[in-house]
Amino acid sequence: MRQTGLNPGALMQKSSHRRWLDAALIRLQLSNRCFLFLIVVFSAHAVSAVDPHRLISQYGHTSWKDRDEVLNNPAAITQTTDGYIWILDSAGLLRFDGVKFARWLPPKDQQLPRGAGSLLGARDGSLWIGAPGGLAQLKDGALFNYSPQIRGSGVSQIIEDHAGTIWFTRYRIRDGEGPLCQVTNRQVQCYGEKDGIPATYGLGLAEDTSGNIWFGSSMLCRWAPGSSSVYFEQELKNLAGYGVVAVVAGPSGSIWAGLDGTGPKFGVRHYSNGKWASYVLPGFDGTQIRSQAMLLDRNLTLWIGTESKGLYHVHDGVADHYGRSDGLSSDTVGDIYEDKEGNIWVLTQGGIDLFRDTPVLTFSDSQGLIGADVSSVLALRDGSILVGNEQALDIIRSGAVSALVSGKGLPGQNVGAMFQDRAGQVWLGIDKKLMIYEHGRFSEVKKANGAPLGDIGPTRSITEDRDGKIWAVAGGNNQIHLFRIKDRRMEEDTPLENSMPRARYLAADRDSGVWIVSEPGSVARYRNGHMEALALNTGGDTFRTYSLSVDSENAVWVTTGKGLYRLKDGHFNVLDSANGLPCDSIYSMINDNYGSVWLYARCGLLKITASDLATWMKDPQSKLPVKTFGLLDGAQILTQNDFQPVVSMAPNGQLWFASGRFVQMIDPGRSYLNTIAPPVFVEEVVADRKTHDWQSRFDLPPLRGELEINYTALSFTLPQRVKFRYKLEGHDTEWQEAGTRRQAFYNDLRPGNYQFRVTAGNNDGVWNENGATLDFSIAPAWYQTRWFLFLCVLSGLLLVWALYRLRVRQIRKSLGARFDERLSERTRMARELHDTFLQTLQGSKLVAEDALEKSSDPVQLRRAMEKLLVWLEQAVREGRTALNSLRTSTTQTNDLAEAFKRAAEETRMQSLMEVSFSVTGDSREIHPVVRDEIYRIGYEAIRNAYTHSKGNCMEVDLRYGRDLSVRVSDNGTGIDPTIAYQGKDGHFGLQGMRERAIVLRCE
After folding, report:
1. Superfamily the domain 3-12+21-357 falls into
2. Nearest 10 degrees: CA dihedral of 182, 188, 192, 197?
3. Is this structure's pTM higher than 0.85?
């Protein structure tokens, strides 16, 4: 089949700075009907828009450069109903939350149409992606590809009409196909020649208020079912360009079209009242512009993006330009978009630019001021704003700047102090003269005699008292004078060198006279020729004063480097950082029409409400809530000059502040509140450094370390000021204030079910209380399961039982040992009694029996009784010894040889057996218990030899060596082996010897 239409290769044969558009797919905006529909849709959210009366350079501007390694030649931008911004670039699709770009990857086994083309966020929440490779729809995470239905035709532009139908144009078609297509129930229907469309390709696309579809091609086509017309067919017939690349529809049937080319028949053309004409107006010549993108925003401001000349902004018939030299990321603009908050997004060859409203508006040399040395600002009763400047007196009327320049209407070079009196005359200090400006003419103040006043030095401040007299402070180099002027003639000249050196500023007293403030920190009231001075710096420190004013209660207010001073009835109070101000250096002060006080300070523009200020005046120690407008709000505070006024209120209530190189304005009557609560989303869950896929509820594996939850809120006006709070139900008892942090961390979560809740507030503190929720559970690890707990409890019980049994056993063993000890002691006592006491009693018995046998012999009887007495004494000693052995050693010496000798001597009373002793080795110290046991064994052996052996000779051998050896031998009859091993009934001598020997071996 032969392919017809525009050759994509031809589209790419343009200058290199247009190739990034990828076959000239130009982003166009919705028609006016769609625009009105969006107003209806968003009206419930009080959607704002950028102020159309500002210059582009007066908007807040943020730029993301292509070189940031995130963007790759961005070509299209849109916003879906959930609030996310989507960007299509040469690398694919990006999702943006205002802080970070996230590359979107298609589901597995699917892919986006190749190339970068156009995007549309539809009202049903879906995202439409058009590209050279075809068309796709992304909804609820699912991607549906229409490319097979259109056989890969290059999609140029996508819009949604007032009924919600999706339309798109394509620039590469086959025979019999049309360049204009619609999508219904996921079916594509295209319209071409048979439907009254002669074009062979389609580019820019829009719908007008009547429901007609307009699109660009080698001509401009208007089409509706059964009706069509074409424009510029002849003009573009021989044009070696794209034709009509951009179309936008406005109210009342207005159409703007961008024709690829320059000249009276090309450029930007406008259709109104049934006629086409070149779009030419102040600041914009459409015949010299190649427009690639256009947008009509909610305020009906037309934004025009060009091929090589940057961005234009048209409102009320006046155009404003903004290009790369002003800060735009590139002069080649490819797409323009307005988000839900009214911010304007501009895609260029170099990146993305965002323009937003700021509460504080700036006028500098970039906005038309002649110089960058602003000294004062004065709002006149006719609404004009005078700006004292170097080499000029700038005049701002309705946002437009004009000037009286030195040598061309300005009788001097530098303008200092300014003042408008009750009669409407404007008093100016110009160079070293005091002049009056009235009806476009300047006149010099004169002396009382009518002569020119001459050089009086720079005029610092001018005011008017209750009697209509004008006062001025002028001079320099310590030659300061206070002038009083009536009927344009000076009637008093008061030098201030002595009374108020370095006097700077004036304010009229409500009763009479004027107040004067000097730079070192003194204030004085001058009236009737008398000066009443009061030092503000009672602590002795000097500080800078910046301005002076008197309120309706005749209280004097002085702005200083140490806070805001209020002087009333001779007493002053200071409002400073101790009361809640973010800084102490206050440059100027003014009250608005609502009673609030505005302070132009080093840290920004500060607002204190009337009720809060009244609270402070009653209690100077109280803390006040202060609204701060900082750099992100447009406030750019620089050093102040030495001239007044530096603040002024216009008749419409706007407040104007001079700030060194520029003037700034804020309108207290306008609400700058961003009323759109930001949508909140949980974006990522990271557990143990692993990212988990999740839905509204999901289960996490056992958690060993940290859980990280990443969340976001979609507010693009000032994402830096979006604040968050979160709470983890099941863990947190209170809400956690996260500030601007977009992550929550937990490292002590136990197994169980949890619900994570996060809410967010936008830059103005409007909170989305519903926020986002995430339900999840954490599975227990093996050591956190109930079975493990049961086993632990069971093991614990078993351990307790085992310890109990061990303790019982120990107690039993201890008791057994105690009983054994007692039994051993009893046994030992039995041995002691047997071996000593009982043996002695036995010997006594034998002596008594011997005495009884010879009772007839008195001498023998007496000898027996004496021997019996000796034995009884021996029994007594042995009894005591047995008792003492319970506490200490039986023997008092360590010499066993001597002990055995005494034992032999004691037993010889029963026998005449001869005893010999031998000792081998050196005597050694022996434990008393061991020594006694050895002694008792030897003593028993010696006694047995005397008593039972019937021998006449006994040897006792004691050897000290590695071991101790005791040997007792005799020449008697010996002992029966049975008795030797088993003992004899009723006798315990041998048994006791064995028991003592066993005890010694064990020890």
Report:
1. YVTN repeat-like/Quinoprotein amine dehydrogenase (2.130.10.10)
2. 0
3. no
